């Protein structure tokens, strides 16, 4: 028998809110808003999507201007023809992107998230479809809460068809960067895609449909790692969206004609519009939160309320923690922008961009790989000479036919046997077998074993090539015992 006393029941604390771990996610209905930052965001939506959807249809030298041809392992970017060996340039672009993100974040917070991130861009587009079919915030909430009538089916069905059509178009465009888009369009008419085209069109379309149509703010809040480590790049001079509590509190509703000083109120009328327009559903008045993507919708709507009330703008605005605490003006805050962290990020970014641009400008117009013939490492031919067989791959990175001359050196008496010069077509890679011989006298003088040699491959002047260019690739020559 358990004689221990029952635990005393604690008094209910009204400030404690019980939240179930399995509570259903509350759907957010962002209210439409107009203003300067909304116009900036839509300008970037148009810019990014015109580039994304239009780029595959541009032609360059009678081919698609931007095409990542994985089958033939050629990557065409306007006048550049890149091979898998040029992977270093992709690494450079990723490093530039990372440092640019660090720089913009240290300077002005989550600019990327609020204006140009694909999740933000496609969420804006899908919300636009939703508003066209279902109306603004109040109408959508009423529609969702109401019964399934014919009008509700019509509106919801129209929205879903628009979402699915746009998502499939997005998936089709994505695949158009890897399969020539005009060939892909011809296949789309008859639904004659290959298995991989079908997979990626549907996969990328489904990802767009799910992320922008349903997950929305959950991607930013829970799936995106940037929200978790952004604070490491913030400091008190980072430009962020902030609520001026000193000016706004105590908040409260009032008429337009009322004097807030007489009522003992601040500038905030507690209209809650800043929460209603927020795509992640946060209250900016509670301070900086990791869920804030810096879209500035709350700035636009608060400025419109201040205009209606006849109060100065800027209750919610872009500012810095130091600027807000010290009451700095815009000029004083921008002077603090050029602090050591920003200067270091800028210098590193400039050096990497300069190095990447210089490397591309000085890039050789062809590449050479040397592979020893494993079937026959070394052999003695009829005249007593030692012969090694090599396979050379010459990759023409220009878009005109080029002629190359191949010679071998490194050991006295070494000569390469090749039937004339090698011609390689535009953006083509050709393998050629080269027999390298060392006569008996020089082989005896060199001695048995492995000896370093090199191949000199020279591009001869022809067509667009006005000057010869040479490459030297190292290898080894085996002399048997």
UniProtKB/TrEMBL annotation:
It comes from the Bacteria. Residues 259-287 form the 4Fe-4S ferredoxin-type domain. Gene3D superfamilies: Immunoglobulins (2.60.40.10). It holds the Pfam family Fer4_5. Keywords: 4Fe-4S, Electron transport, Iron, Iron-sulfur, Membrane, Metal-binding, Transmembrane, Transmembrane helix, Transport. The chain crosses the membrane at residues 36-55, 75-102, 161-178, 198-215, 342-362. InterPro entries: 4Fe4S_Fe-S-bd, 4Fe4S_Fe_S_CS, Cyt_c_oxidase_cbb3_FixG, Electron_Trans/Redox, FixG_C, Ig-like_fold. PROSITE patterns: 4FE4S_FER_1, 4FE4S_FER_2. This is Cytochrome c oxidase accessory protein CcoG. It comes from Leptothrix discophora. The gene is ccoG.
